[in-house]
Amino acid sequence: MQYLKMAQHVGVLYVLTGGISGGHIVFINFIKGVFQLYQIQVFNFFSLPAVLPDELCNLKKLEMLSLNNNHLRELPSTFGQLSALKTLSLSGNQLRALPPQLCSLRHLDVVDLSKNQIRSIPDTVGELQVIELNLNQNQISQISVKISCCPRLKVLRLEENCLELSMLPQSILSDSQICLLAVEGNLFEIKKLRELEGYDKYMERFTATKKKFA
């Protein structure tokens, strides 16, 4: 009850207790009683259900959601109703695909899906509006060329996946807005990346961005 009153007052809910019995019920009761939340962070909970409760999607003002290190396998179909969401972190869960619901979130800036079980990136990725997408430490072996169509994507992290160099779309280098591409720890040597057509264009974007923030 103390957590609930604090969340109602400041619009921020932190759940710090890990592995408590019936944790998902506690979480649902929290969000049922609070409708003005701006941030939710659940740290090392390990007790949320495989699918998030629909009640979460009623939080129309939610801007930041962090549910790292849980057992989530998918997002509810109504997740796209979180129209104010800007930052989403679902690292260390059990997602096996890029959630298509993310494509309808027009204010989403940063998405962290690292340490999941995602194996491929589908064509729908081209509809994402994010600036930064973290897919490190998944099982990705295929990426749709549509990822180059993301209008705002600047940072793409694909470290420690299962990518062959031939499966990395060259349009990421030549035709995208991406200015930071992290692909270390895949099934090719980084020096081979430098030999691909379009690498010079990528380096121009990378250098320009680096100078901008120097």
UniProtKB/TrEMBL annotation:
SMART domains: LRR_TYP
Transmembrane regions: 12-31
Record flagged with keyword Transmembrane: yes
Pfam family, one: LRR_8
Top-level taxon of the source organism: Eukaryota
PROSITE patterns per record: LRR
Coiled coil: none
Keyword hit for Secreted: no
Keywords from the UniProt entry: Leucine-rich repeat, Membrane, Repeat, Transmembrane, Transmembrane helix
GO cellular component: cytoplasm
Name this polypeptide is given: Leucine-rich repeat-containing protein 57
Organism of origin: Lynx pardinus
